[in-house]
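ACT domain-containing protein
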Amino acid sequence: MIPESTRQVIRDSDFYLEPDIFYFVEAQSIGNPELHRLVCRDDKEITVVTTQAGLADLVIKAQNKEQWRLLVINCANPFYCVGFLQSIASAMTAAGLDILLVSTFSRDYVFVKNQQTEQAVAVLLDIGFVKR
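Tokens:
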């Protein structure tokens, strides 16, 4: 069950769908990081989320076969909303959707498989988000 305070933050939050298709890549190297949506480097790998145009900038070690869409969520109370991401993840799971979640300083990104975009949008609307 979603606490009422979390429900209120969800009602006060909005989202939009990015028009691009995205790809998840394990890169050996990156030419221009600013060309990509997300670059994450740790002691094991470099993961890049990019568009078709950005693939040419990478030396690719591996690539996920799926095409992904991006739902950008503008949280009304970033950092201070217990259960916010869990509410999204639980609703998507209940709908049978496989998602990837990423949090930045002021936004949350929900990546969904391209063929499940409409269903994911409907889930966000159903739990109370406003579409921009």
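The chain has two domains: 4-21+67-131, 23-63.
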